[in-house]
Amino acid sequence: MIDPASHPRLARFAAMMSKETRQILRDPSTFLIAFLLPVMLLFLMGYGVNLDATSTRVGMAVEDDSGEASSLAGAYASSRYFDVVETGPLQRLRKSLVSDDIRAIIVIPQDFGRDVAAGGGEVRVITDGSLPNTASFVAGQAEGVRATWAAQRASDRGMAADPPIDLLSRFWFNPELASRNFLVPGSIAIVMTMIGSLLTALVVAREWERGTLEALMATPIGMGEFLLTKVIPYFALGIVSMALCTLLAIFVFGVPFRGSVFALFLIASVYLVPALGQGLLISSALKNQFVASQVALLTAFLPTMLLSGFVFEIASMPKPIQALTYIVPARYLIPQIQTVFIAGDDWGLFLPDMAILLAFGAVLFGLCLRFTRRRIA
Amino acid sequence: MSFRWPEFLRKSLIGPRLRAIFAKEMLAVLRDPRARLILVTPPLIQFFLFSFASTMEVTNIRVGVLDLDGGQWSREIVERIEGSPNMREVRALRSDAALKTAIDRQEVIAVLRFGPEFSADVAAGRPASVGAVYDGRRSNAAQIVSSYMQRIVGDVSAQTPRGSAIAVRLEGRGSGTAVRHWFNPNLDYIWFVMPALIAIIAAVSSIAVVSQSVARERELGTLDQLLVSPLRTHEILIGKMFPPIVVGLFNVTMFVILTPLVFGVPLTGSVPLFYLSLFFYLLALTGIGMLISVVSATQQQAFLGMFALTVPMIILSGYASPVDNMPGWLQAITWLNPPTWFLVVSEGTFLKAMPASDILSNTWPLAVQAAVSLWAASALFRSRME
């Protein structure tokens, strides 16, 4: 224990810290956000959000009875990208397309066999455009099956048809192109934003609402100290939760971790500075828990999801939205965290981003301090 | 601020006690001007932010080229890449080391590498190859860029001497596939996003309102006052259900009007059926929000509980990625998730002119969810009061 007589400041600080820590540990909702939700989020991102190619439910209408038609129909049925769940006349398949029972219709039209013999033979593909990604994927795969089938027939007749220029593609860092490998590390950014900004957005507002802040002001504690005691426990919570997520990512989801643990902890710590600053600023400026929580959702959580480059490519957004992304702290975190996981340490990439994040943090904490001072005066 | 009921409602339908509690609950939600603002502004901001930010196209691409050949055919490919409307910059790289740095620092998303013999091989009719390296950290965008590259190289490939010869042997056959996209002929991503967003924003705003309701009164100590009033328990709860449904209907109506006007998304289905389904959707959401509120001791717990539930609800709705792509056990869980059902209704009403039978088969699960969650909330409320 610290002796209050010899170190009054330190003792005060320790007392406040233990008050905050106890308050956090006592409330089950903190555990919900810091441990249960991150685990759930990781599982959902790891298993639920799948942007990769899987098989699509389709209907098939074979209107021709030639050998070519049934051979091609067999090619579609055995393709791993298609799951032919319904066959029949086009009329009935249309209804299933509207009802969401199937995502596309493949039509092998009448006279297909005759057309193929004449050098043509067109397959018609009708997709459900209400899901644009699935639709373009299905269209591409349907073309692919048709082309492979034709090439196979050509080579059966002794005509080689391999392309004159071959494009040999290699995907660095993530050769199997698992979207999990960028979604799971990206979720860690979301988790740290939740703890840093969402939880802290409530803490000062709660003291205002309940009137306990006035009681604290009557004590000799300074405002800087007060804010620090609010921040440090949440900082620790953020780091512990990040570590938990990292362990899950590596050992449960098999995401590669090619950087160093030191770099990861440094990246996380630096990001928590502006995140906590933002939460605290919202909380001390708004003084109302409902309003503060909604503002935190809108200004911290949503931008991290949408404007950080985590899910959507920043370069593809309209110019004004791109400009907006520069003030989203997570924008500077996502490349770092993806790199430290699947590429390795690259300090040339880390350090400039860290500098920007720390500058954000300084501005936000400065504003916080001004806000609390002005309110007290 | 006073609250007056329309004449026909005052005369009929609802008894005086229910009218009083409705008025009280609406006032509680709308009294604070900042809270009033927070009910409508964030959904509007989300509406525009989501619509502009959520793009699945990849444009403004930066790629690098390491051309050790410099001959006719490599220049042909590079020129076509430069001419593609999706490209922003084609950076000439000098060495393999520069290639590695450009990818590592995310300065470019892809690099094409031509070996020294490339043009000679093509001209002589020998099989030639181009290397392409992509940044797998952004695997989604990289895959899309890779499909652009495939197309460009494929086009050039068909024009080489050997490519023309093959085309003659295969009797000039085209791709052999005619694709038509129904409901959304140009595959506009925003046509999918906006109806989905309606389902999500309705969920977020109505659950946010209702989850605070009981928890707030409990934290402020006014719940006991309500309990000693002549109101019966079910009347208190019906009163609490009123504001989220009003807020949800208001926000959704705003979006149903804005979506076709601002973004040109067609509204092809039946609006009355849409609202019927929406009503049960809002009831189901209210039931879930009420459960959170009844269980929570403080507003903070209610808010965090709301948050912990809405995030997975959105991820599982089919908005983030198609439900079809999820593993079977997770698809089974999505049956319990109201937005999953309403997303189908919303997309169907806007884009697919979905008939009544399909709308209803996606609505009755919402009605069941509403009945179960509201019953559970009121049972819990009663048991916690005793």
Automatic annotation (TrEMBL), chain A:
Gene Ontology cellular component annotations, sorted alphabetically: plasma membrane
Keyword Transmembrane helix (UniProt): yes
Membrane topology: Multi-pass membrane protein
Keywords carried by this UniProt record: Cell membrane, Membrane, Transmembrane, Transmembrane helix, Transport
InterPro entries tied to this protein: ABC-2_transporter_component, ABC2_TM, ABC2_TM_bact-type
Record-annotated membrane-spanning stretches: 29-49, 182-205, 226-255, 261-283, 295-315, 354-372
PROSITE patterns: ABC_TM2 (PS51012)
Subcellular location: Cell membrane
Residues covered by the ABC transmembrane type-2 domain: 135-375
Stretches of the chain forming a coiled coil according to its record: none
A molecular-function term among this protein's GO annotations: ABC-type transporter activity
Pfam (any one): ABC2_membrane_3
UniProt-listed PANTHER family: MEMBRANE COMPONENT OF ABC TRANSPORTER YHHJ-RELATED, MULTIDRUG ABC TRANSPORTER PERMEASE YBHS-RELATED
Protein family per UniProt: Belongs to the ABC-2 integral membrane protein family.
Record protein name field: Membrane protein
Species in which this protein is naturally found: Croceicoccus pelagius
Automatic annotation (TrEMBL), chain B:
InterPro entries on file: ABC-2_transporter_component, ABC2_TM, ABC2_TM_bact-type
Compartments (UniProt record): Cell membrane
Keywords for this protein: Cell membrane, Membrane, Transmembrane, Transmembrane helix, Transport
Membrane topology of this protein: Multi-pass membrane protein
Transport recorded as keyword: yes
GO cellular component, one term: plasma membrane
Segments crossing the lipid bilayer: 189-210, 245-267, 273-295, 302-320, 364-381
One Pfam family of this chain: ABC2_membrane_3
Transport as UniProt keyword: yes
Main location: membrane
GO molecular function, one term: ABC-type transporter activity
Residue span(s) of domain ABC transmembrane type-2: 146-384
Family from the record: Belongs to the ABC-2 integral membrane protein family.
Protein's recorded name: ABC transporter permease
